[in-house]
Amino acid sequence: MKEYQRQEQSSYKYTIANTNLRKEKSTSSYIITVIPAGSKVQVNDAEEDWYEVTYNGQTGYVYSDYLSQTKYAWTDVTLRSFPSAESKPVTVVPLKSMVQVLSVNGDWSNVIYDNQRGYIFSYFLSDDGNPPEGYDFKYFYTDMTRFVNENQIKSPTINLITTNLENKLTYIFEKNDSGTWDLLYKWSCTVGKPSTPTIKGTFYVSGRKPYFGSDTYRVKYATRIRGSYYYHSILFNSAGTEIIDDRLGMALSHGCIRLDVKNAQWIYDNVLDKTTIIIN
């Protein structure tokens, strides 16, 4: 069975256009400065729509659409000067290395790696640094309990979380005395829309927030998958007093996985950091 390495939080990104650094998480907030396209920013914190970043000693908020996307090479791969296999090599990107994707041109991703810009054939990049054929997904969409046990999925804690993006279902498992997995819960969820898809792969719970949001919405009981991706509640108004969007079983989020409030709270209250998450 292939071993899956844990992914570290990315500590930097690049702006993909001239970008406003704002004082608050709002498009109407005061603009501290304009960050030029292609600039490197230090990431301090991340939420679904907004990143807290530092640029030239100034800290504020940047809307996520204006920042590069984090991917990982799942094999040694050549960074090339143009989107063509015949173009001049720039360098070799080692297995498991993080790259920042600026744009996608057909089958090629325009990326920055180690402060060098070039192109990588997109097939060799993944959200978790693992190859797409890592598990046998035969039963992933029809019998999740069989999938996790036949693949002998490991988790450092007594729980395991899986999310089926196709059927928009999230599963919670608990390890029994024999070391196999028992299904505790199966919940409907809302996942990323096609333009901002939910990441796929193997991840590990890496912290939580009681809530986050902006001047237009708030979500509660947020458990981090990686970076700006979380399991969290359906949407509330900015004060957190009234539900404004309770839709589940749909693809309409900015990449996070939305759950009914009580289900998001269960994960937040019970699932420990380092718990394995599999999303596909």
TrEMBL record:
Keywords: Cell shape, Cell wall biogenesis/degradation, Peptidoglycan synthesis, Transferase
Transferase as UniProt keyword: yes
Record InterPro entries: Cell_Wall_Dynamics_Protein, LD_TPept_cat_dom, SH3-like_bac-type, Transpep_catalytic_dom
SMART domains membership: SH3b (SM00287)
Sequence ranges assigned to domain L,D-TPase catalytic in this UniProt record: 159-280
Leader sequence segment: none
Alphabetical list of SUPFAM superfamilies matching this protein: L,D-transpeptidase catalytic domain-like (SSF141523)
GO process terms (BP): cell wall organization; peptidoglycan biosynthetic process; regulation of cell shape
Domain called SH3b: residue spans: 9-71
Catalytic center residues: 232 (proton donor/acceptor), 256 (nucleophile)
Pfam families reported for this sequence: SH3_3, YkuD
Metabolic or biological pathway, per its Swiss-Prot or TrEMBL entry: Cell wall biogenesis; peptidoglycan biosynthesis
MF-aspect GO terms: transferase activity
Protein name: Uncharacterized protein
Organism, scientific name: Clostridium sartagoforme
